[in-house]
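wait is this the right file?? whatever heres the structure
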């Protein structure tokens, strides 16, 4: 049946739709869940690559550079939502189905683990392809230098700072997903996602899946002394090689940012809207 409505879904209807979608996501077969997770990781990585390319030699102010970069990064979530894929950070909203007793904690954790793994595989595959494409050599290797600078910055935070930035990031990411669910058409969904994603990127918040591209790409390039030297020259910084490695990536960024993403998506968005719109409804009551 054609949906002839032109008005957006109301917040209460959105909450009911998120609950229903959460059940569907949690019950996906393993192969479908992993495959869609791989796609989402690659899609977010494309957004990260696009961001890097667009801002790598910007002469604009920091704010304007980050604004433009944020707009370009939105490509990643647009691909996830419109093309269809499973993104770990967005799937923190599945908690709404769990607290409504529509799925079990095992279903919830299974989805998160499989999708997170798939996201890493997809992002890493794009890292390999982008490295082999030598796209980082464009503009006299300035793109590669920017990659190093981005990774170096992300690995320079304390555990607490990375954790808090992860919380703030996923508040905006899950709100972008939430707003997209209000739309009935493709353009509605894209416009709804644009500003929250632009805001998180421009503000310098931390997204665990995007960092699965940004930092490993820097780890690949750390073995090119010329690119590292160029990064230090144009960035006016010393690259911290003690942290720019796989253990540093996991401890200084991936763990705290992932935990922050969970807290932001689960507690500050998912459970907040559950409390307002779904709490008290019978667990066996079907969402429309």
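ok assuming it is, sequence goes like this
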């Amino acid at each position: 049946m054609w949906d002839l409505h032109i008005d957006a879904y109301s917040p209460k209807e959105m909450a009911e739709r998120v609950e229903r979608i959460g059940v569907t996501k949690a019950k996906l077969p393993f192969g479908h869940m992993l495959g869609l997770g791989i796609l989402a990781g690659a899609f977010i990585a494309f957004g990260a690559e696009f961001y890097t390319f667009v801002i790598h030699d910007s002469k604009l102010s920091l704010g304007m550079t980050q604004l433009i970069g944020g707009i370009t990064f939105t490509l990643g979530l647009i691909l996830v939502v419109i093309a269809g894929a499973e993104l770990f950070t967005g799937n923190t909203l599945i908690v709404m189905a769990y607290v409504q007793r529509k799925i079990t904690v095992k279903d919830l954790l299974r989805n998160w683990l499989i999708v997170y793994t798939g996201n890493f595989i997809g992002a890493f595959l794009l890292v390999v392809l982008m490295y082999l494409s030598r796209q980082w050599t464009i503009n006299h290797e300035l793109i590669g230098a920017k990659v190093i600078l981005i990774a170096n910055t992300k690995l320079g935070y304390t555990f607490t700072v990375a954790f808090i930035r992860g919380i703030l990031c996923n508040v905006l990411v899950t709100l972008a997903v939430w707003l997209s669910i209000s739309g009935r058409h493709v353009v509605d969904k894209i416009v709804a996602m644009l500003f929250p994603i632009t805001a998180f990127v421009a503000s310098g918040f931390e997204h665990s899946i995007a960092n699965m591209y940004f930092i490993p790409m820097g780890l690949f390039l750390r073995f090119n002394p010329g690119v590292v030297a160029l990064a230090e020259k144009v960035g006016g910084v010393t690259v911290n090689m003690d942290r720019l490695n796989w253990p540093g990536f996991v401890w200084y960024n991936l763990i705290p940012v992932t935990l922050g993403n969970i807290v932001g998506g689960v507690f500050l968005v998912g459970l907040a809207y559950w409390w307002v719109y779904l709490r008290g409804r019978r667990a066996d009551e079907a969402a429309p």
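Residues 246-278 form the longest helix (33 residues). so i think its the right one actually
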